[in-house]
Design goal:
This protein has about 140 residues and is mainly alpha-helical. The chain has a single domain, classed as Alpha Horseshoe (Serine Threonine Protein Phosphatase 5, Tetratricopeptide repeat). Helices cover about 85% and strands about 0% of the residues. The chain starts with a helix and ends with a helix. The model is unreliable at about 20-25 (pLDDT under 50).
Amino acid sequence: MQTSIKKLAAIVMGIMLTASVQLYANSADDKTVEKSREAVENADPNDWKTLSYNADKCFRKKINTEEALEWINRSIEIDANPTNLTVMGDYYYRNEMPEKAIHYYLQAMAKNGHGQNELVAEAIQVRIQKAKTMMDNQK
């Protein structure tokens, strides 16, 4: 009888611990979404950088991705550049769509000019290679 009570107590404690960790994670995610929305709402209408940064933040945490996709699309409409095109490529890569990821990475390379920024070019080339590997593994 006492063994059953101890087992039950251990199970209840485990469930409570799991629930509290989940509540904390949801709370942190809610704050990220709230802060991102606030930043986007308060940004200048032509501020592609705020849109891109906050979309990327949501994509990385895998939260609020539908709204973040709207933000990155608006950012690209304002000023398609290596930064926001790479964020869009990363979105597609994380969602296992390597062909679309490569499409955006190549656009980012083109916007970077002729190796204008070597570090940016190298970072994009690494992403392209990873996306190609993913594509090969999907076959």
